[in-house]
Amino acid sequence: MKQGSADDPFADTEQDTASDEESSTRQKAAETEQDTPATGDDVVETSAPTEEPQERDSSTGVQRQSLPYIHSRNGVKDGRTQRPVFLREHIETGIDDLVDHVEAEFGEDVYKTDVTEAAMAVAQENPELVAAKLEEWGYGWS
Amino acid sequence: MLAYTVYSEAGGVGKTTLAANLAKAEVRAGRDVLVVDLDTQEASLSYLLDVAEDRDNENADSLLRHMIDRPRDEFQDLIKTSEGIDIVPSHNILEYASKHLRRREEEAADFGESWNPNKQLLRVLREAGVHETYDTLIIDPPASADVKLHNAIHATRHLVIPFEPSGKGYESVRGLDQLVSGLEEQLSIEVGVLAVVPNRYKGTNDQDRFLAELRDDGWDIPVKLRERSSLLEGCWAEQCTAFRYIEAHRDREREHEMDTLEKLDDLAERIRETQVVEA
Question: Does the model's pTM come out above 0.90?
Fold first, then answer.
């Protein structure tokens, strides 16, 4: 500790305080989604921003947005909000299998966080596949 | 928002009365003040300011419930007001804070989430928009160094340290320095000391020697509070701040007591300036 003033934990959302956050409501998270870096690598994420987060160059104030998502972020948690989701065991195991699959495909490490969010993005782009799965689970039988 | 935790490793140094009176001095300066009481002792700030009625009510919502994501109600409904000071009172369940926070951490781990039990108070306060509502946040933690103290320091990043001008008091400041250094490393934070406040100062040579040593160590000592037993006992008996006590319960003004109030106002101001200047 030192004499005088230190940093202000309330000044803005900073990584070390946000990373452990698990917002209790979706609305709250939606409000802070753009500026709240969050979450652990091994956590299932569902809050894909529809646009790539813009990064501001601190020296010039110029925004750059040309790089693909994983190359323009500072860390895998950037711009993401941690979400608890309820999964059955075989689905959760399936995520690891999916990670293995894409890693074999690309020949490089792929974050589980990216895989789970990509899986959600694919589902959102293919709602008919989601509906078919739900039907398999018993929806729409009446 | 100005935020600090009033803490000393040594007990009985007037931590709670200092926190309450600094809060009142902030109100007198026209600021919106929130005090969070994390101390479960009977002689707590909640008792001193007469807002402790729900502390043993098992059905009442409590700050700890919010910290473990099991709130019963809105954060705002936790707040009681006394002498213009908003207070989140202490609750007996805080006695078991470390057990409940650890359980919650284990539960989170089972779901593959990282959840740090030391960082939950800041999360709750931020989610409640405390920094947008208040000008000053003061936390009164328990005297023991446990997870509640960690949460308090993590949420405020600043300390005001009441100090008994004696060898024991001097060692307690050095001990606190060690404790805080460990915490800074563990939580990746930096902690600033806004003031060291000698309490029950009598002006003896011995006391002056310890104050000089503290200054040599680099700590700022803006004011010295004299021994005011009668005034402080009166505060506990009437459950109010020193400002209210002198106004409402003394039939005549005593110069030395007015001097103490003035020093409290000065101290509050110096603390505000310290944070503003260096932030």
Answer: no
